[in-house]
Design brief:
Blueprint (H helix, E strand, L loop, with lengths): L1 E5 L3 E3 L3 E9 L7 E10 L5 E11 L4 E9 L16 E9 L4 E10 L4 E6 L3 E2 L4 E9 L10 E6 L5 E7 L8 E7 L7 E9 L5 E9 L7 E6 L10 E10 L7 E10 L5 E10 L4 E7 L7 H5 L3 E10 L5 E6 L9 E4 L6 E2 L4 E10 L9 E10 L4 E3 L9 H4 E5 L5 E7 L4 E10 L17 E8 L10 E4 L11 E8 L6 E9 L2 E10 L2 E7 L7 E9 L5 E9 L9 E5 L15 E7 L4 E9 H6 L7 H10 L12 H6 L19 E2 L3 E4 L5 E6 L5 E11 L2 E5 L3 E5 L3 E6 L13 E6 L40 E4 L4 E4 L26 H12 L9 H21 L4 H18 L19 H14 L8 H13 L24 H15 L11 H8 L7 H4 L4 H10 L12
Parallel strand pairs: 2-8, 10-16, 25-32
Antiparallel strand pairs: 1-3, 3-6, 4-5, 4-7, 7-8, 9-11, 11-14, 12-13, 12-15, 15-16, 17-18, 18-21, 19-20, 19-22, 22-23, 24-26, 26-30, 27-28, 27-29, 27-31, 31-32, 33-34, 34-37, 35-36, 35-38, 38-39, 40-41, 41-45, 42-43, 42-44, 42-46, 46-47, 46-48, 49-50, 51-52
Protein name: Complement component 3-2
Pfam families: A2M (PF00207), A2M_BRD (PF07703), MG2 (PF01835), MG3 (PF17791), MG4 (PF17789), TED_complement (PF07678)
Keywords: Disulfide bond, Glycoprotein, Secreted, Signal
Amino acid sequence: DILIATVPNLVRAGDTETVLVTIQKDNIGVARSVPVTVSFKNADDSLIAEETINIQEGVDRVNSETAHVYVNPENIPELEAEEGDARYITVTVACDLLGFSQDKRVLLSLEGGYVFIQTDKPIYTPSKTVKTRIISLNQRLSPLQQQIQLNIRTPQDIVVERKDIAPEAVRHGVFTHIFRLPEEPMVGNWSIVVYYGREMKSNRTVQFEVKEYVLPTFSVEIHPPNYILQTTRFLDILVNGRYVYNKPVDGHSVLKIGLIDPDGEIEIKETDVQQLLEGVAHHNRDINILGDNWFDEYIGCSLYLETTVYEEATGHFENASDASVKIVNSPYIFSRERTVQYFKKGLPFQVKTELKYTNGLPAPRVPVRVVATGKLSDNTLVSLRDEHHNINDEEREITDNTDRQGEVNFNLYVPIGCEEITVNLVTFDQDLIVPGAEEMNSNAELTFVLRPYESPENGNEYLVIRTPDLDVIRYGDTFNLDLFLERQRIDIFIHVYVIARGKIIHDGSKQVGNIDGYQITVTPEMIPSARIVAYFIGENNHIIADSVRIEVRRECHNQLTVGLVDIDRRSFGEAAEPNNPVHFRITAEPGTDVSLIAVDKAVLLLRDFHRLTSKKMFSTMDAQDTGCGPGGGMTSEHIFKLFADIDPFDDGSVRFDFPESWAFDLVHVDSNAPVYQRYTLPGSITTWSIQAFGLHENFPMCVIEPTELVVRSDLFIQLLLPYSVKRNEHVEIQAVVFNYGREDVKAEGIERTFHHSVQLNPQGVDLNRRRRDIRETENCVWDAENAAQLSCLDIALPPTVVPGTESCHISITGSPLGPAMTAVVTGLGHWIRQPTGCGEQTMIRLAPNVYVLKYFLATNSGNEQIEATALSNINSGLVRETTYRHADGSFSAFLSRAGSTWLTAFVAKVFCQASELTAVDAMVPCSAIGWIVNNRQRANGAFYEGLAVIHKEMTGGIEGDTAMTAFTLIAMAECRSTCDQVDQRKGWSVDLLVAPCEEFEILARRSFRRMLTSVQTDAGEPQPAYSTSR
């Protein structure tokens, strides 16, 4: 009897792994139950998980059972390990009844499932809101509630917001976070980083860009040739301009044609201007504009194309560039990645190759000449394209054509004595051959050599499995798996199992002859790919194996659909009308939570990166396959190691509401009937890209391809507005009328000028009464039955009130101590203001928020609203201040100024204090202190100012090295527990501060004296010889 255990070589903490145990008997015996125990253990032999299965033996000689073992992360100790260090556990399979026990050391992954990050847009302007979804999934890509941490980082990699999210907050596998950008944020690429999994070792990152921009009104695309050869005579280039609402642009294209030289420099050779007809400009130029010796000089380099399309009506323009076209010897490139590297002697072998253009696109319907030669043990060469192994040259060469995907696949008939196979492929494109000039042949060629599979102990036992040549395999299909043995056998059991996403999902066995088949039914778990493994027990109990990887059509098992219909639930025609109702028609499996988002396609013209797409989802599924290549291996051991794992003008209406994204919502599908989610379309004339994904506890996540909806009117006005304007700036705003209707329309404009005079007090004091206080203690009615007092107050508004500015604040005091406490809170609340302005002004407003909030929390004298306001101001102030941080860690009022010692120390001091209230990236205060120590300290230890602050009121009038040193040392003391480098060289400053008392007469009267004494005491120095009350 033989027991075979198939164990993954990668297990994941928090997931259920599969171990397949098979017993093959020599003879049919009595019926019995055979217990087998599968154990997962740590390196210290402590138990992680254990599962016992019972294999029922009876009338069959082969019986198997799969153990499903949950890898409990709670039973895995936390170990200190360097980044990238591998961790292993031991898998033990034991059967006392059969006297079998074997251990296997396998790799452990601590990654807690998968996390995807989705933002409502990939690009934002300052002060906008970033809406984020964090999607938490288990290994089956179903919803998972787990602990995660969210970090938002600036382009300088500074964490400006950190949020620890409890598992219960990740409802239905999705957590939504809103982050508001400051008015003047750091421009560039920001990052959202999410940590998750065991020990928070795993992380995912998505970037979004922050910049000032105006949405484009039309797109520009360049369609160049696929390649440039030595025989190329003309450059045929098309430029396409289309409005975002899918109408052609009327205008002209200015195309710059150049080359990128070997040093990466762009050299413009010519500029060509062509008119757009129906949105397309045709540029056709002689190739010699590139130079007399262009091919020899620039072979291997890229053609550079840059176009500017000008709109005829306004002169507004958009740009596009392209550098995908290369100057090459051949337009084609062969790839053999889908071909197994090792062949089996005496058995058929399948070669799978791909042909692509140099720009990466498939090359269909191209003739390919194939020569496959086998070298026998006596060095005889034979052709392998026919079963008779003829060595005649003409018969050795066969021509095939690539299919629609650019693939060319063929079979080889390998003799038993074959020791090496050489395959040569040459494209036979007649258009690439210049008669009489062999050196001008631009066809592509590929030659590769294959080695034989090594049978155990140099034996001659082989197995080959082969799938049928199907254009596409879909789930639900059934196909026959061909099995080939090296010779006729009678009593051989072929064991077959299927691995998908790292799990064994099917197993079976069959007694077969020399050529027989095994039926495979494609299940949803096999999307997008699976591996089929087959093996048998050969002579001397050796395992003879083969494997093959199959690709399954990439479609969701949970068939999510999102359609767009009008208010009558009928499909839209060519386009929908703006500001009109729209229904999202959603279908999915009952129990599915569907997340939606609609994005203006104009936004995606600016940036189309880091979006959650179906391609990204399926790539994640594919990543669960820990195998390598298309299948096979040099030995059976290698084979097994592969696996483990609307018209608005007739009625005078106006378009309104122009968001760049909307419908950021979650919709629950609770039945098989469609769900209709109603919205009102924004006023934008554009194309909306509707993105959606669905989560279900019993199905993998489904991300569908975006649905597009064109929104436009036959007649509309478009205003070309700048991103921003400055005071007293003269701005020209163009109004363009677009008429796609059948009748001419006369446009009339009305100019209206509004004047309003306002008298301002130069001293900033409002002489008028800004508010009216009403204090009322009479006219009260006591309602004894309801124990309530009704007070009637006259709050008639002043006659000079500005419409839209009215407000009323009611204060009720219910305690004799109330007025006193209200005065304290209201008085301190005056300091709680939103931080704004330059780097210094931001700190002037930020610091009081920190001090007041700490006071309220320490004395329990605040209230929930004022504390929340203060914390919100602190968070926004911290983010804003980082925009005035230099790369060296220093701060200044404006980035055009050099770093200020005082301001940098003040930032460090306040940021360290704020870290007690909210998440603060320690790098900010610590690098600030490091900059001061390394750049603003004299040889005697004193700290000095390099560039004085603008707002002198910040410093309280303190100047000189002594005061600067004291203030800097205080900042360092505030950050002692945060920064490791705080104590570096600090002793020099302490020595300076304990100099003769006369030096500190002025300093002692200042606000730093108490803190100074504290710092000296903490530093272990003697108490100063003067009193702090002096």
